[in-house]
Amino acid sequence: MRVPVVQHRSRRRRALRRRALWTGGEFLVTAGVVLLLLVVHQLWWTNREARRDADHQVQALERQWATPGAVSGGTPSANTGLAGGSSPRPSTAAGGSTTRTGSAGSTTPRRSQAYAVLTIPRLHLRVPIAEGVSKQNVLNKGYVGHYPGTQQPGQAGNFALAGHRNTHGEPFRYLPRLRVKDTVQVETSAATFTYTVDKILPQTSAADSGVIRPVPRSIVKPSYGYSSPGYYVTLTTCTPEFTSRYRMVVWGTLTSMRPRT
User: Fold this and answer.
1) Can you name the residues that pair with 196 across neighbouring β-strands?
2) Is the CB of residue 137 less than 8 Å from the CB of residue 128?
3) CA torsion sign, 65 to 79 to 158 to 180?
4) 7 assigned to some structural domain
5) Are residues 139 and 121 in contact, defined by beta-carbon separation less than 8 angstroms?
6) pLDDT tens sequence across 166-202
7) How far is CA 258 from CA 75, 111, 182, in A?
8) CATH number of domain containing 237
9) Catalytic residue among 12, 17, 238, 245
10) Does some domain include residue 200?
């Protein structure tokens, strides 16, 4: 009976295979840990940091506005007339009463400057508004961004805003919870403007520029929007969650203005 002889070459091949499998396993485990850390960073750490910074900015604006005579440079301020010098016109408030509405002024804030505060009671949201929609300098800080070229709070036309739905503070994560007749408040150094939600576009193209025009109307879904000039606010965010393929749009109409005393 012959005893099989194990060749050294066969041993080396098996050892190399074991080493390759071990190295591959280590690589997969390391890659999994790195990927997990990236997910934690995006979903937890960026939210934590952005929300903290946004809260601090809201508090800074409130302290600034509480200082008698303090108005930040470039911050819009209310006046006694509409943009262009026309007289203020009445509008019907949410409770049915008639109030006088004025403009937020024609001064444009500096790029990336936080100059107003957005409050949405249904969403328990209170967040700073900054000029522009730069990801790095505005949206990723947890702020809501004002679309350049659209109107300022209280002005005739469309005051259009954008905010993240996921990560970096995700201020608009629960925007789909808004309903018609909910209120949206915008505070500036001069006044608080209250808009009432009256139209919601659940989904449209990311390139649908019609939703932020002075008279907002979707160019993708023309049945959504307005047909006459007014005083509007537009809130936009990505949809569905964790994608940027489409946009959700919420519109409201100015119903009251309360000057800051």
Assistant:
1) 183, 253
2) no
3) positive
4) no
5) no
6) 999 999 999 999 999 999 999 999 999 999 999 999 9
7) 17, 26, 18
8) 2.40.260.10
9) 238
10) yes
Cα separation of 175 and 165, whole Å? 8
**16 within domain boundaries:** no
Number of domains the chain contains: 1
Q: Answer whether residue 88 shows pLDDT above 50.
A: no
Helix and strand numbers (H, E) in the chain are 2, 10
33 falls within a domain: no
71 versus 196: the higher-pLDDT residue is: 196
Q: How far apart are CA 168 and CA 122, in angstroms?
A: 21
The arithmetic mean of pLDDT across residues 40-53, rounded, is 76
Please return the burial class of 159, using the count of CB atoms within 10 Å of its CB with bins 0-12, 13-18 and 19+: buried
Neighbours of 70 (CB within 10 A): 11
164 catalytic residue (yes or no): yes
The catalytic position among 146, 164, 165, 168 is: 164
Give pLDDT tens digits for 128-142: 999 999 999 999 999
The three-class DSSP label of residue 175 is helix
- Percent pLDDT > 70 in the chain is 74
pLDDT confidence of residue 44? 60
Catalytic status, residue 18: no
Mean pLDDT for the stretch of residues 195-211: 98
| pLDDT attached to residue 106 | 47
Out of 173, 213, 217, 247, pick the active-site residue: 247
User: Please, are residues 237 and 164 in contact by the beta-carbon 8 Å criterion?
Assistant: yes
Give strand ranges (E) for 74-123.
89-92, 98-101, 114-120
- Catalytic (active site) residue 238: yes
Domain that holds residue 235: 58-259
Whether the pLDDT of residue 77 is over 80: the answer is no
